[in-house]
Amino acid sequence: MTSQKTESRPSSDAMALAEELRRSIGTFVRAIRQKTATGRSAPSETLGLLEREGAMSVAALAQRRSVTHQSMRVVVAQLMATGLVDRNPDPGDGRSWLVSLSDAGRAQLLRDRDVRAARIGQLLDATLTAAEQKRLRASVDLLDRISAAAGD
Questions:
Q1: Would you say residue 26 lies in a domain?
Q2: Which three-class secondary structure state does DSSP give residue 125?
Q3: CATH number of the CATH domain containing 104
Q4: Largest Cα–Cα separation, the chain
C-alpha cells in the first residue's frame, strides 16, 4: 500500500484572508505600475525573466512565458532593436543563439524599480504613521515567508 500526501482544504478563515490579500496586493501593484508608467508588457516581463534566470534561447523564453515561439521572436527583435538585450552564440549548440540582458536592459529594469520604490516610499510617508510603518515592515517578513513556502 502506498501513501499519498494529500493537501487539506484551507480553513474558511484562511480562504477569506487569502482573497483579501489577493485583491489588496493586486490593486496595490496595478496602482503603482499605473501611476509610475511602468506597466507590465511582454518586453518588460521578458527582461525580468532574463534578469532572474539568465540567458536563454528564444524557444526557452517562449516556453517560460507561455507564448508562441513566433511571438517571442517578435519581442526579442524589439528588445534587440532598442538595445535592451544581446544575442550571442550558444556555447553548447553552435547553431543556436542565447538572448541575455544587456547593460542597457539592466539599467532600464533598475530605473523602473527605483521609480516604483520612490512612489511607494512617498505613499508610506504620506499615509502611514511611524508605528504603522513598523507594523507593515513586520508584514513584509510574513509575506516573504509565504512566498518562500509557495516556491517549495
A1: no
A2: helix
A3: 1.10.10.10
A4: 61
Is 24 part of a structural domain of the chain?
no
pLDDT, tens digit (0-9, with 9 covering 90-100), for 75-121: 999 999 999 999 999 998 888 899 999 999 999 999 999 999 999 99
Residue 31 lies in a domain: no
Residue 118: give the domain boundaries. Answer: 39-150
Whether residue 111 is contained in a domain is answered as yes
Spatial separation of the C-alpha atoms in residues 55 and 52, rounded to whole Å:
9
Q: Which residues pair with 98 in a beta bridge?
A: 88
Interval 115-148: pLDDT, tens: 999 999 999 999 999 999 999 999 999 999 999 9
Are 51 and 109 in contact by the 8 Å Cβ rule? The answer is yes
Model-wide pTM > 0.85: no
Determine the straight-line distance between the first and last CA of the chain, rounded to whole angstroms. 26
How many domains would you assign to the chain?
1
DSSP-based three-state secondary structure for 92: coil
